[in-house]
Amino acid sequence: MDDAKPLTGFTIGVTASRRADEFATFLTRRGATVIHAPAIRIIPLSDDTELRRVTRQIIDKPPEFVVVTTGIGFRGWMEAAAGWGERNAFKQALASTRLLARGTKAKGAVRAAELCEEWSPVSETMAEVLDHLVAQGIDGKRIAVQLDGAPTEGKVVGDLCDLLGCAGADVTAVPVYRWMPPEDPAPIDRMIDLIATRALDAVSFTSAPAVGALLARAKVTGTLEPILHAFRNDVLAACIGPVTSVPFIELEVPTTGPECPRLGELVWHIADELPRRAITIQVGGREFSIRGSCVLVDGEVRRLPPAAMTLIRVLGAQPGRVVPREELMSALPRGGDAHAVEVAVARLRASLRAPDAVQTVYKRGYRLALDPVEYVDMCRDGTV
Fold first, then answer.
1. What is the signed CA dihedral for 272, 273, 277, 283, rounded to 10 degrees?
2. Mean per-residue pLDDT of the chain
3. Residue 155: its pLDDT value, please?
4. Per-residue pLDDT for 153 more than 50?
5. Domain 279-381 belongs to what architecture?
6. Considering only the top CATH level, what class is 43-179?
């Protein structure tokens, strides 16, 4: 396999609504097959009278603090002000306040506007923002908080506003945009099905609302438990940062992500992580690397029918172990009998172009024909 394309044979779901084409290009250049299904859509509020009223209020009387929660929200806010002919006045007002940026994206948007944040939390959490503000002494202080765009104004940001108010602050909530479900749910429904059937190796997330929207849709379609099981066992949940991971963490779903929450870093992280996690074994003198919807045989992609792909995953989970026919029957996508297993095994051998890779063990079942040295090593390790 070409080292420049470490994602060859892997299929990755992309849920981003912004910069999705750029992200997909980064992944495909590294060999991945990309399935794109926006989990959310962003509705700007440039014509929102409340946003304009709040912006004018900040220009006329800048608050002591302004909390920027998302990069996209802050950029949209600046663009809306420019559309009203107020960009310079708004920028001057913000320059006179104490700007707090919740995370890396928010900080980047602030600096792109040629402004400078006073402080940003290491954890990128609202809890740390709250602690920092309370420590400053905010009784009677005016604080503007940019909402995070969730349809209900966002529980976490809403809680921050409430708690700041309880601490004596005069809080102004700033509605900049809204997250909404996609108008056409078909692509995200397809992605949910692919997750549930392990046809994806990883799914990438660049915002917590995208995670929440996918999980909410799965709950509506009755597939929440299957996709949670898939994420906990086989499908990699790749999140750009700790804030994005929160909805998964609350459901005890493991996530992975780069140390620096940037899009390019997420690509590199996925390109490192997926090959490391793939099952790679020596079978019949050839190297097999089992991936979500294919097998690499000596670096060449072998696309398998769904039933055959299911069998190779089951056989590869414990290489060398004899898997009973009954276990393989129950694992088939639509179930089946002994004949269905035989047909799937035949198709597996044909698709791999390695007829001796899967051994039939008389009256017991099937197993992968591991090379002798590897089989001995696995016996010593207790794997088989």
1. -20
2. 88
3. 52
4. no
5. Orthogonal Bundle (1.10)
6. alpha beta
